[in-house]
Amino acid sequence: MSQPTPNQPSQASVAEQVEKNKRDALRLADEIFRVVKDNEFLRLKPEVRMNVVKEKCPEFCKHYPMVASWMTYHLKYSRKAFAKYLDKLANEHGKREVKQGEGYKEWARKQADYAKILYMETTDHWNSKTAGKIWNTEYSRIIKAYDEMKEEESKYKSEFDEEKKQHHEELIDEILDLVGTAKKQQRQTNAELNKADDIVDEDLERRAVEIQDLIEHKVRVAEGDEIESEEEEDLTPEQLEKRRIRREKEQIRRTAELELLKQRQKEAAEAAIIRDKVVKESFLPANLTTQPIKNHKRKKTRRNKKRR
Length: 308
Hints:
Blueprint (H helix, E strand, L loop, with lengths): L10 H26 L2 H4 L3 H11 L1 H6 L1 H10 L4 H14 L10 H20 L5 H104 L5 H45 L2 H6 L12 H6 L1
Helix pairs in contact: 1-5, 1-6, 3-5, 5-7, 6-7, 7-8, 8-9
């Protein structure tokens, strides 16, 4: 006789766990049905009773939905029938071969089994024909609900795929429009760059002419001062006064010329700054990032509304 490995439980421990799960399920089912039969609870609509049980005992309803359904909708429950149903599940576990993709049919069969067992345990003189009819009714109802769910799911999937495709096309159009706008801005930027180059070139030429004129003027003034200094001894006081006035006027003119030169230099520097700014902003990827793509919100499908 083979011995169980350290990681494999023995048959005795598995049987003990199965029995414990059975006792826990029976105890919880008894407690749920006790609450369902309460007068205050009976005043609720069947679907409301079912929702309350689902909320309070989600795991029980997940594993034994048919038991919870007959309790809340039909107010029928039998501890003996539930115990037989649990034994049947334990005995069949791992023994039935299920074809791939037909697991839902096996699950529906197990749920219908409980309805049949419940009828047989709660009816004194039951007959097999009625029991079979109950089983077929529950099985067909579950399969129909499953097929409708899959059909609806397929329908909403098609709608979602269509929305996704439309969203993708709109996004491409948006990007193409954005690229076209960026190209237009690039052309405008190039025109501004050319204009800025012309301004800088004109300013440089003007500054060169003004500097040359200033140099020549300074040379003439220096020569004139030298001549005047040599002749001052021969001049009368009236002539000296006129010369002094003429020198003051000349000094004022020089100051004005220097101020004009500084102003021209300032304008040239500002033109260079504008040109650098235009060059920097003309970089195409940067323009692309300044215009965010519209946020296309997905339309709410009927399935999303239903879920909410």
